[in-house]
């Protein structure tokens, strides 16, 4: 048989908060009821999600999650960023809800992905559809790149932010002469992002300042541009 569809059913504490948040991301409400059981459905193009309200539900304890496969993770992320900036004046990078940035995932064969953690604590994990793109090329990196890859698995995939912090702090505590400057910038800015998730603005500001102080060539500055874009969002969130 063909044309079957699967629509995730995810828990939340408030269907109103869910409806508002996904509206910011460009979703429209397809269904909503209060009785006998509060639930809401939202849709953005072919992406459909449904939510049910649980009295007393704690989003921080949620195990709700689903995968979204798309041919254009960058375009989808840009659209969500635009919605957040229009509604909140910044990209939400800490607390609940929040959104991570597209990054290659070591535990997903190098495919890029990002996550939305919605008001219900559900992780909406967006990945590039492997059927629509060639296998990502593997590029050798130094010890900082390897530390960053491991930290991304812990924080962005598993939600183990504390473990990711320990990985990065250990790497940053042992600087070496051959550390690549771009990798230094990427690690410092990701460490700042994790500090924001942990509600530690002082450390976030310190890491951003350290990243700005790294000396880069013109070519290195261009390669570090995505990381500095992230730094700009983090700096805005600190204000």
Question: Features of this protein?
Answer:
2 domains; 8 helices; 4-stranded mixed sheet; single chain; Serine Threonine Protein Phosphatase 5, Tetratricopeptide repeat; 2,3-Dihydroxybiphenyl 1,2-Dioxygenase, domain 1
Tell me the series of helices and strands, N- to C-terminal: EHEEEEHEEEEHHHHHH
Q: How helical, in percent, are the residues?
A: 40-55%
The low-confidence runs, each spanning 5 or more residues with pLDDT under 50, are: none
User: In CATH, what is the class of the largest domain?
Assistant: Alpha Beta
Corresponding CATH architecture of the largest domain: Roll
**Number of H- or I-type helical stretches:** 8
Write the layout of secondary structure elements.
Elements (H helix, E strand, L loop, with lengths): L8 E4 L2 H10 L3 E6 L5 E6 L2 E7 L11 E6 L2 H16 L9 E2 L3 E2 L7 E6 L5 E6 L14 H15 L3 H12 L8 H17 L3 H13 L4 H6 L1 H14 L1
Parallel strand pairs: 1-4, 5-9
Antiparallel strand pairs: 2-3, 3-4, 6-8, 7-8, 8-9
Structure description:
This is VOC family protein. It comes from Micromonospora craniellae. InterPro entries: Glyas_Bleomycin-R_OHBP_Dase. The chain is α+β, with helices and mostly antiparallel strands and 239 residues long. It folds into 2 domains: 123 residues, 2,3-Dihydroxybiphenyl 1,2-Dioxygenase, domain 1 (Roll), CATH 3.10.180; 100 residues, Serine Threonine Protein Phosphatase 5, Tetratricopeptide repeat (Alpha Horseshoe), CATH 1.25.40. 43% of the residues lie in helices and 19% in strands. The termini are far apart.
